[in-house]
Prior knowledge:
Elements lengths: L3 H14 L4 E7 L6 E8 L4 E5 L5 E7 L1 E6 L2 E6 L3 E3 L5 E5 L3 E8 L2
Amino acid sequence: MTDLTSLVEELLTTARAHASGRGGRSVRGGQETHLHHMVLALTAGSSLSEHESPGEATLLVLHGRVRLEAGDDAWDLGAGELADIPPRRHGLTALEDSAVMLTTVRI
Length: 107
């Protein structure tokens, strides 16, 4: 079991202490599983630059507000909102101190 509330607080503290403005930890998944969950914390204005899609994936906002961008499309998401990650290059920017759970399927 993982206490996501405590983990979000811990990772936001880590993100605030690092120049990158980020902190993260895998909470489920490994070599032997197909489903993988990772919690990422980002300080306001920090981002994950545009990168390739990991395949089928979702993004759940646990805290704060983020912008998910893919080409000309953009979605602003707040705490409690879940979105499919587009199957193309995309990036993520924290509009305020935020934490998200990225869920991917590894085949």
